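Quick one, tokens below:
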């Protein structure tokens, strides 16, 4: 990814746009065919020379075309350099080449998304029926399975793949429409030929620039991907807490968790993922700020994109790799999950108990009061909830032993796990 966003590759894509333009214009007779051939054979540049010229002229594209013209002269083809950049404005080259760079940067991100999808698929099925307590507001709620937790991440990753493919396609456009988008010097048909040579679509309409809602869509999609990585990492951070200890990051024998406390096993990878996701989200905000430009263009977006596009794509590729490794090597403790599930002696079954009473004719408000008073006692006195409700005269006067078995049944609570998996993993 770093190579993609290097100066060498950026200028290389500029040159490819220039050459595609010359060749397309030669096809329609606006540039001599021998000139287009000479440019393809001899056009080149040296990055240091571009910088030398830019220090003098203070214009990067002019510095680039000057450096290329010098290379043409060195090759004995200097007379053909007058057809370089023929009919183009600077941003025809810059924006179209940037679309090529984004397409290149999208390849490893797409591969990373697929790797994460596969990792989540494997581990979700591994723990499909591994019971864990579900938590809402950080408090025990009802039973679920760790496989369902991972399946949720899987489904979100699939949505991210769909979103990313759409955003990638929306930004696969070039523009060769001139200084204000009116095709004053090159026709729309020529633009389409040039873009087709580059594997791009021609933007249906542009000003001097491709409209930045496309870029904001792309970067905001990267932010969503980063947010999913953070969501997974945040779950691991909670599960690794000492009081929970249901799962943890892989920790090698030679690894150290703290300079002062030898016992420490800290979720440092998960914390790193959560931190870097914030950077990508902040870049999305900057991308939105780039949408509104003065009239047919100003330059306020350019400096921003030189930061947020390389940084966001590099970070998201990294985050996907770290998150995939986190998932693949996650250490899971089913016994601890079972132990935590039993805290409170069955409090997590209060909802089903409420339904059993209601189905037996007890008004919901009354049934809720009966169940809650026992739940609060079990909570505050560290008692056994099931034992309390079985000995509550109001409740025991209504329910039969079979009703309690149903109310406190894990099988009943989780009877639809396979159906959920069938819906999620339907690909």
């Amino acid at each position: 990814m770093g190579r993609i966003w290097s100066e060498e590759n950026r200028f290389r894509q500029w040159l490819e746009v220039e050459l595609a333009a010359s060749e397309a214009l030669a096809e329609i007779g606006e540039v001599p065919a021998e000139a287009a051939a000479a440019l393809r054979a001899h056009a080149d540049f040296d990055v240091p020379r571009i910088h030398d010229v830019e220090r003098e002229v203070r214009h990067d594209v002019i510095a680039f075309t000057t450096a290329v013209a010098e290379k043409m002269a060195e090759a004995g083809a200097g007379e053909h350099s007058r057809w370089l950049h023929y009919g183009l404005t600077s941003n025809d080259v810059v924006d179209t080449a940037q679309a090529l760079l984004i397409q290149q940067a999208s390849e490893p991100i797409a591969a990373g998304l697929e790797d994460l999808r596969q990792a989540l698929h494997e581990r979700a099925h591994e723990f499909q029926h591994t019971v864990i307590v579900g938590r809402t507001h950080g408090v025990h709620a009802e039973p679920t399975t760790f496989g369902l937790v991972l399946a949720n991440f899987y489904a979100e990753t699939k949505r991210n793949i769909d979103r990313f493919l759409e955003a990638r396609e929306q930004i696969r456009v070039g523009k060769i429409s001139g200084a204000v988008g009116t095709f004053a010097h090159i026709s729309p048909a020529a633009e389409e030929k040039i873009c087709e040579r580059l594997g791009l679509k021609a933007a249906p309409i542009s000003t001097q620039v491709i409209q930045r809602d496309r870029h904001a869509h792309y970067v905001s999609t990267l932010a969503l991907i980063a947010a999913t990585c953070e969501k997974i990492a945040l779950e691991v951070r909670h599960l690794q807490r000492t009081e929970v200890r249901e799962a943890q990051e892989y920790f090698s024998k030679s690894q150290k968790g703290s300079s002062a406390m030898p016992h420490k096993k800290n979720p440092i990878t998960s914390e790193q993922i959560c931190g870097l996701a914030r950077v990508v989200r902040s870049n999305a905000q900057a991308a939105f700020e780039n949408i509104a430009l003065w009239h047919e263009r100003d330059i306020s977006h350019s400096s921003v994109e030189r930061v947020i596009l390389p940084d966001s794509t590099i970070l998201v590729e990294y985050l996907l790799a770290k998150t995939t490794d986190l998932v693949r090597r996650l250490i899971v403790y089913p016994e601890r999950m079972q132990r935590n599930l039993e805290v409170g002696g069955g409090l997590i079954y209060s909802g089903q108990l409420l339904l059993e009473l209601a189905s037996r004719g007890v008004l919901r408000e009354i049934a809720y009061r009966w169940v809650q008073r026992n739940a609060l006692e079990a909570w505050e006195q560290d008692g056994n909830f099931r034992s309390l409700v079985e000995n509550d005269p109001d409740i025991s006067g209504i329910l039969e032993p079979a009703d309690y078995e149903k109310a406190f049944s894990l099988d009943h609570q989780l009877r639809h796990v396979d159906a959920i998996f069938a819906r999620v993993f339907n690909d």
